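Fold sample X.
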Amino acid sequence: MNFMEFQQNSFHQFLLENKVVGFFEKPITLKSGRQSSWYVNWRKVAGDVYLLDRLADFVLAFVKTKHLDPDVFYGVPEGATKLGLIATYKWAKDQSTFAAGSHAFPMGRAKPKEHGDPADRFFVGAPRGRVVVLEDVTTTGGSLLETLAFLAEAKVNVIAAIGVTNRGEQRADGKTVTEALAEKGIPYLAMSEAKDFLREAVQFIKPPEALIQSVEAEIGASLR
């Protein structure tokens, strides 16, 4: 299988056409606790086999572009779990070494099991080899950093973390997600950055003027 070349414009179009980004007239509270008038949600794509397959192809093309060489992918539970599985399956099948025992098929549990084999408490299949961690939406990186800390404790070799979309918000400590992960020796790469596609989203969705102004005030940048 020859994975397509990653093209940023095509990925933005995929994001917009499938309503991954949108606007709220009344601000909502994000997982980070902050309020926002715009959202990024990959749920529709993750719930559709065809669209999830296309998203996985974008991920694999992005990985090739960044010259990463993972053995498997691990999705941050639970938002990126399915994406991690599909990406691992497609990537493994494309390798010349693909055979019984060649690639793990890792999946993390959102909450550890209270009983049973310790090897099964945190994973439904543990990551093995060089691992790229996937997150669907990165806001301040809290969930991602928690996952990376847990994987480090499990002695998993994480070579990079990829955010399908980075909202690009500063953490309470003033650091970006990229800076926070760099301190742990892990590169953070984003397939899409809010600052790059929000202007396109305004043109595509055409929200009311007052809502555009609200989002501009929130992000501190013009969207015209």
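Fold sample Y, listed below.
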Amino acid sequence: LRSKLSPTFTSGKMKFMFPTVVQVANELVKAFAQIVEKNSKVEIRDIVSRYTTDVIGSCAFGLECNSLSDAQAKFHVMSKRALLENHLGNFGVAFRFSFPKLAMRLRMRDTVHEIEDFFMGIVKATVKYREENQVKRNDFMNLLLELKNNKVMKSDTGEDFTNLSLKEIAAQAFIFLVAGSDTSSTTMSFALYELALNEDIQEKARREVERVLELHNQEFSYECMSELKYLEQVIQETLRLYCPLPALNRVALEDYVVPGHPNFVIKKDMPVIIPAISIHRDEKYFPNPEKFNPENFSAEQVALRDSVLYLPFGEGPRNCIGSRFGKMQILIGLALLLKNFKFSVCEDTLIPMKYDKENFMVTPDGNLYLKATKV
């Protein structure tokens, strides 16, 4: 299935979905402005989670979710439940990660039936409506429908793929939501937090956004993204310091002798846990690793490091296929927020950062408040 979906995340397909993301990001700016007019103290996690929910709802499910205008919108509420409620509890999740094959044989499932039925119903209705009315949109759902209807799609390597079932469409749209919503919104929250703590970095990023938009007549075009190099460094540094998944689970494909240690052999089929966040915070690879420093990702510094020392999306053939989309929605959201608002800490800002110890992901413990004022 991964091979079928890889073509939907090529750079060409990202350009296809770009206008949809920008449209939602403009709604984020409007919603943010309404909040700031009433109170300069903003709970960041909630508003950016509604942004990523609307982006993925629009791109993956083909819906106008309206989470930014209504915090109690049904899609947003069910999305939060999908991320927070678990049929098995934390022990069950740990069991599935540790023994995936056994969990499949035991037919263990995470998702609550009501949540699964809700999203399956949305996909069925969307597919039916689009096929009957020949509707096309610049979104992920449209690309999935093309695969379902036997349209040949090429991957980055030139391979041809086709055929996708309705169940596979529903499953992939749901995975898109679960994997892409919370990770992206949390990264945006941490980025804004660090920019509020480091106002010199924030100002440098804002000046870059203003300069790039001026070159493009104040229109945020697809070409703008490649020119926002410093903001890209800000995002990369955020992902280094606050890697969403602190560890990666892999399985050895063959026996592997650890170089320089012949007595240590990773046997074929042995589970391997890669401590990504520990690598990211190792001073051997990143000087002064606890300090937020976007210069860690300047072209010169990146060239000095092995690529496997930076693993927010994994590495190799099993890396996150949605990383391009995730980075795109984060970059667009941050760029438009920085263009319109200045961020600083307030009396309720978490300093130092505290983490939710019950979450498998790296997330703040509780709300994340910042002061925001119009530029």
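Sample Y note: The two ends are 46 Å apart (CA to CA).
Also: The chain has a mean pLDDT of 90.
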